[in-house]
Amino acid sequence: MSRTTAAVLLAAGNSTRMGAPKQFLLIHGCPVLARTMQAFEACSVIDRIVVVAQPTDHERIYALAKEYGISKLQTVIEGGVTRQESAYKGVMACGDAQLVAVHDGARPLITPSVIERVMLAADQYGAASVAVRAKDTMKIADADGLVVSTLDRSVLWNVQTPQAFKPDQYLKVYAHAVDQGVTNSTDECALFEAQGYPVMLVEGEYTNIKMTTPEDILLAEGLLK
Protein backbone atom coordinates (compact mmCIF):
# COMPACT_ATOMS: atom_id res chain seq x y z
CA MET A 1 0.00 0.00 0.00
CA SER A 2 1.40 3.39 -1.01
CA ARG A 3 -0.41 5.38 1.68
CA THR A 4 1.07 6.07 5.11
CA THR A 5 -1.00 4.14 7.65
CA ALA A 6 -1.56 4.03 11.40
CA ALA A 7 -3.52 1.98 13.90
CA VAL A 8 -5.17 3.46 16.98
CA LEU A 9 -5.63 0.90 19.77
CA LEU A 10 -8.19 1.95 22.37
CA ALA A 11 -7.20 0.73 25.84
CA ALA A 12 -8.46 3.48 28.14
CA GLY A 13 -11.62 1.79 29.46
CA ASN A 14 -12.38 1.16 33.13
CA SER A 15 -12.93 -2.63 32.73
CA THR A 16 -15.92 -2.47 35.09
CA ARG A 17 -17.42 -5.81 34.04
CA MET A 18 -14.05 -7.55 33.99
CA GLY A 19 -13.20 -6.55 37.54
CA ALA A 20 -9.56 -5.86 36.59
CA PRO A 21 -7.72 -3.93 33.82
CA LYS A 22 -8.51 -6.26 30.94
CA GLN A 23 -5.70 -5.00 28.70
CA PHE A 24 -3.18 -6.55 31.11
CA LEU A 25 -4.91 -9.85 31.84
CA LEU A 26 -3.04 -12.88 30.56
CA ILE A 27 -4.07 -15.19 27.74
CA HIS A 28 -1.73 -18.18 27.83
CA GLY A 29 0.81 -16.01 29.63
CA CYS A 30 0.66 -13.03 27.25
CA PRO A 31 -1.16 -9.79 28.18
CA VAL A 32 -4.25 -8.97 26.12
CA LEU A 33 -2.89 -5.66 24.82
CA ALA A 34 0.46 -7.22 23.91
CA ARG A 35 -1.34 -9.80 21.74
CA THR A 36 -3.33 -7.02 20.08
CA MET A 37 -0.21 -5.01 19.35
CA GLN A 38 1.52 -8.11 17.96
CA ALA A 39 -1.21 -8.51 15.31
CA PHE A 40 -0.73 -4.95 14.06
CA GLU A 41 3.05 -5.28 14.30
CA ALA A 42 2.83 -8.32 12.02
CA CYS A 43 0.53 -6.64 9.48
CA SER A 44 2.57 -5.38 6.53
CA VAL A 45 0.15 -2.53 5.70
CA ILE A 46 0.40 -0.89 9.14
CA ASP A 47 3.25 1.61 9.55
CA ARG A 48 2.75 2.86 13.11
CA ILE A 49 0.71 2.22 16.25
CA VAL A 50 -0.85 4.71 18.69
CA VAL A 51 -2.25 3.40 21.98
CA VAL A 52 -4.86 5.38 23.89
CA ALA A 53 -4.73 4.56 27.61
CA GLN A 54 -5.04 5.85 31.14
CA PRO A 55 -2.01 7.98 32.13
CA THR A 56 -1.15 5.52 34.91
CA ASP A 57 -0.74 2.75 32.31
CA HIS A 58 1.58 4.52 29.86
CA GLU A 59 4.86 3.35 31.35
CA ARG A 60 3.59 -0.21 31.56
CA ILE A 61 2.51 -0.18 27.91
CA TYR A 62 5.88 1.09 26.73
CA ALA A 63 7.46 -1.72 28.74
CA LEU A 64 5.15 -4.28 27.10
CA ALA A 65 6.08 -2.99 23.66
CA LYS A 66 9.76 -3.41 24.46
CA GLU A 67 9.26 -6.88 25.95
CA TYR A 68 7.21 -8.18 23.01
CA GLY A 69 9.17 -6.52 20.21
CA ILE A 70 6.57 -3.95 19.12
CA SER A 71 8.75 -1.65 17.01
CA LYS A 72 5.80 0.19 15.40
CA LEU A 73 4.56 1.77 18.62
CA GLN A 74 4.81 5.51 18.02
CA THR A 75 3.24 6.87 21.19
CA VAL A 76 0.84 6.23 24.07
CA ILE A 77 -1.61 9.04 24.80
CA GLU A 78 -4.32 9.81 27.32
CA GLY A 79 -7.90 9.01 26.37
CA GLY A 80 -10.98 11.19 26.52
CA VAL A 81 -14.16 11.11 28.59
CA THR A 82 -15.94 8.90 26.04
CA ARG A 83 -14.85 6.27 23.54
CA GLN A 84 -15.70 8.70 20.74
CA GLU A 85 -13.36 11.32 22.20
CA SER A 86 -10.62 8.73 22.81
CA ALA A 87 -10.79 7.62 19.18
CA TYR A 88 -10.60 11.25 18.04
CA LYS A 89 -7.56 11.95 20.18
CA GLY A 90 -5.93 8.79 18.85
CA VAL A 91 -6.53 9.80 15.23
CA MET A 92 -5.13 13.28 15.93
CA ALA A 93 -1.95 11.64 17.28
CA CYS A 94 -1.38 9.74 14.02
CA GLY A 95 0.47 12.60 12.36
CA ASP A 96 0.55 12.47 8.58
CA ALA A 97 -1.12 9.05 8.26
CA GLN A 98 -3.38 8.87 5.21
CA LEU A 99 -5.31 5.82 6.42
CA VAL A 100 -6.13 5.05 10.05
CA ALA A 101 -7.62 1.96 11.67
CA VAL A 102 -9.30 2.21 15.09
CA HIS A 103 -9.35 -1.04 17.03
CA ASP A 104 -10.43 -2.17 20.48
CA GLY A 105 -7.29 -2.99 22.42
CA ALA A 106 -9.30 -5.76 24.09
CA ARG A 107 -9.78 -7.71 20.83
CA PRO A 108 -6.50 -9.66 20.93
CA LEU A 109 -7.48 -12.38 18.44
CA ILE A 110 -7.61 -10.07 15.42
CA THR A 111 -5.41 -11.37 12.63
CA PRO A 112 -3.04 -9.50 10.30
CA SER A 113 -4.94 -10.74 7.24
CA VAL A 114 -8.23 -9.21 8.43
CA ILE A 115 -6.46 -5.94 9.27
CA GLU A 116 -5.02 -5.85 5.76
CA ARG A 117 -8.41 -6.48 4.15
CA VAL A 118 -10.14 -3.65 6.03
CA MET A 119 -7.32 -1.24 5.26
CA LEU A 120 -7.50 -2.02 1.55
CA ALA A 121 -11.28 -1.53 1.61
CA ALA A 122 -10.92 1.82 3.38
CA ASP A 123 -8.36 2.88 0.79
CA GLN A 124 -10.90 2.15 -1.94
CA TYR A 125 -14.16 3.33 -0.34
CA GLY A 126 -13.05 5.91 2.24
CA ALA A 127 -14.38 3.99 5.24
CA ALA A 128 -14.69 0.30 6.09
CA SER A 129 -15.41 -1.91 9.07
CA VAL A 130 -14.77 -5.53 9.95
CA ALA A 131 -18.02 -7.43 10.54
CA VAL A 132 -19.40 -10.97 10.62
CA ARG A 133 -22.75 -12.19 9.38
CA ALA A 134 -25.41 -12.57 12.07
CA LYS A 135 -25.99 -16.18 13.09
CA ASP A 136 -29.03 -15.70 15.30
CA THR A 137 -32.52 -14.60 14.41
CA MET A 138 -32.99 -10.95 15.42
CA LYS A 139 -36.28 -9.49 16.64
CA ILE A 140 -37.49 -5.99 17.49
CA ALA A 141 -39.52 -5.75 20.70
CA ASP A 142 -41.45 -2.96 22.40
CA ALA A 143 -40.79 -1.59 25.89
CA ASP A 144 -42.75 -4.47 27.43
CA GLY A 145 -40.74 -7.13 25.63
CA LEU A 146 -43.44 -8.02 23.11
CA VAL A 147 -42.17 -8.81 19.61
CA VAL A 148 -42.88 -6.12 17.04
CA SER A 149 -41.15 -7.74 14.07
CA THR A 150 -38.53 -10.26 12.99
CA LEU A 151 -35.61 -8.96 10.94
CA ASP A 152 -34.23 -10.59 7.81
CA ARG A 153 -31.08 -12.27 9.10
CA SER A 154 -29.58 -12.53 5.61
CA VAL A 155 -28.84 -8.79 5.56
CA LEU A 156 -27.69 -8.41 9.19
CA TRP A 157 -24.08 -8.13 10.33
CA ASN A 158 -22.40 -7.95 13.73
CA VAL A 159 -19.88 -5.12 13.58
CA GLN A 160 -16.40 -5.54 15.08
CA THR A 161 -13.16 -3.60 14.83
CA PRO A 162 -10.88 -2.49 13.24
CA GLN A 163 -12.81 0.29 11.57
CA ALA A 164 -10.63 2.07 9.04
CA PHE A 165 -10.97 5.35 7.18
CA LYS A 166 -9.28 8.33 5.62
CA PRO A 167 -8.62 10.74 8.48
CA ASP A 168 -9.40 13.92 6.53
CA GLN A 169 -12.95 12.64 5.97
CA TYR A 170 -13.16 11.41 9.56
CA LEU A 171 -12.34 14.85 10.96
CA LYS A 172 -15.18 16.35 8.90
CA VAL A 173 -17.79 13.83 10.02
CA TYR A 174 -16.55 13.98 13.62
CA ALA A 175 -16.91 17.77 13.74
CA HIS A 176 -20.39 17.55 12.24
CA ALA A 177 -21.42 14.89 14.77
CA VAL A 178 -20.26 17.01 17.70
CA ASP A 179 -22.12 20.02 16.27
CA GLN A 180 -25.25 17.83 16.21
CA GLY A 181 -24.76 16.80 19.83
CA VAL A 182 -23.45 13.31 19.10
CA THR A 183 -20.67 12.82 21.64
CA ASN A 184 -20.81 9.16 22.71
CA SER A 185 -20.85 7.08 19.53
CA THR A 186 -19.22 3.67 19.94
CA ASP A 187 -18.91 3.17 16.19
CA GLU A 188 -16.60 5.37 14.08
CA CYS A 189 -18.20 4.31 10.81
CA ALA A 190 -21.63 5.34 12.10
CA LEU A 191 -20.41 8.94 11.90
CA PHE A 192 -19.71 8.41 8.20
CA GLU A 193 -23.08 6.71 7.63
CA ALA A 194 -24.96 9.58 9.28
CA GLN A 195 -23.66 11.96 6.60
CA GLY A 196 -24.21 9.68 3.64
CA TYR A 197 -20.63 8.47 3.16
CA PRO A 198 -20.29 4.89 1.91
CA VAL A 199 -18.99 2.33 4.41
CA MET A 200 -17.81 -1.05 3.18
CA LEU A 201 -18.22 -4.09 5.43
CA VAL A 202 -15.31 -6.51 5.31
CA GLU A 203 -16.04 -10.06 6.40
CA GLY A 204 -13.96 -10.87 9.44
CA GLU A 205 -13.71 -13.83 11.79
CA TYR A 206 -16.02 -14.96 14.59
CA THR A 207 -12.95 -15.50 16.76
CA ASN A 208 -12.32 -11.73 16.86
CA ILE A 209 -14.06 -11.46 20.23
CA LYS A 210 -13.82 -8.59 22.71
CA MET A 211 -12.58 -9.26 26.24
CA THR A 212 -15.45 -7.95 28.38
CA THR A 213 -16.09 -10.51 31.14
CA PRO A 214 -13.85 -13.15 32.80
CA GLU A 215 -15.49 -15.83 30.67
CA ASP A 216 -14.08 -14.16 27.55
CA ILE A 217 -10.53 -14.84 28.73
CA LEU A 218 -11.34 -18.54 29.07
CA LEU A 219 -12.97 -18.53 25.63
CA ALA A 220 -9.95 -16.83 24.06
CA GLU A 221 -7.61 -19.39 25.59
CA GLY A 222 -9.80 -22.18 24.24
CA LEU A 223 -9.84 -20.65 20.76
CA LEU A 224 -6.05 -20.34 20.74
CA LYS A 225 -5.72 -24.04 21.61
Any overview of this molecule?
The protein has 225 residues and is an alpha/beta fold. The protein has one domain: Spore Coat Polysaccharide Biosynthesis Protein SpsA, Chain A. Helices cover 34% and strands 25% of the residues. A hairpin with a 2-residue loop joins β2 (26-27) and β3 (30-31). The longest helix has 14 residues, at 112-125. The model has no long low-confidence stretch (mean pLDDT 94).
Question: What does the secondary structure layout of this molecule look like, with pairings?
Answer:
Elements: E1 5-11, E2 26-27, E3 30-31, H1 32-42, E4 48-53, H2 58-67, E5 73-78, H3 83-92, E6 99-104, H4 112-125, E7 127-133, E8 139-141, E9 147-150, E10 157-165, H5 167-179, H6 188-194, E11 200-203, H7 214-224
Parallel strand pairs: 1-4, 1-6, 4-5, 7-11
Antiparallel strand pairs: 2-3, 6-10, 7-10, 8-9
Helix pairs in contact: 5-6
